[in-house]
Structures are given as structure tokens and as C-alpha cells.
Amino acid sequence: MDQSRKNFAWPTTAMDQEDYDGFCQWYAANAPLLKTHQLFIWGAGIRGTAFSILLREKGIGGFFFVDTNSEKWGGYID
């Protein structure tokens, strides 16, 4: 990994039940598409980080983050 790039991962250790349930419903409805389409996550903040953790737990990777904060451009999340 390029050491000049900044890691914007949040130290996500918990998620409220409402967000988790929402993710589970979204994943169930979209799981087939995730195997054939590229995924972009809007927002490289705490929810985007949490979302990416749940996706990785489901075996989904290779997604990208989109954020309007120019300070995050060119960075990465874990």
C-alpha cells in the first residue's frame, strides 16, 4: 500500500440494531446483483466504513467509496 495515502477507516466497533437490520434487508434484496455488478458506497465516514465491514463479512469486496469531501480523495478505508 502506498504510504502517502491516508486510511480514513473509522474505529467501528458497534452498530445500532436499526442500521444492522437495514443492511440485512438491503443485502437480502441485492445479493444476486452484488455478484455481477460493481458496488460504490456513497460516504467514506462511519456508516460507509460500517457498511464495508458488513459487506466483507458477507464475502463481498472490490467496492469503491465516493465522497464529496476532497480531503478523502485518493485515500482508502482499510
Largest sheet: 2 strands, parallel
Strand percentage lies at: 5-15%
Structural class: mainly alpha
End-to-end CA span: 10 Å
Radius of gyration, in Å, reads 13 Å
What number is the mean pLDDT?
Answer: 87
Oligomer: single chain
Give the overall shape, derived from the CA principal axes: globular
How many DSSP H or I helices? 2
The helicity comes to: 25-40%
Task: Give me the strand/helix succession.
Answer: HEHE
Q: Write out the strand line-up for the largest beta sheet, numbering strands in chain order.
A: 1-2
DSSP, total strands: 2
* Poorly predicted tracts of residues: none
Detail the topology: elements first, then pairings.
Elements: H1 17-34, E1 40-42, H2 46-57, E2 64-66
Protein architecture, described:
With 78 residues, the chain is mainly alpha-helical. It contains two helices and two strands; from the N terminus they run αβαβ. A two-stranded parallel ribbon has the order 1-2. The longest helix is centred in the N-terminal third of the chain and has 18 residues, at 17-34. It is globular, with a radius of gyration of 13 Å.
From the structure above, extract its key features.
mainly alpha; 78 residues; two-stranded parallel sheet; globular; 2 strands
Offer a quick outline of the entry.
The chain is mainly alpha-helical and 78 residues long. 38% of the residues lie in helices and 8% in strands.
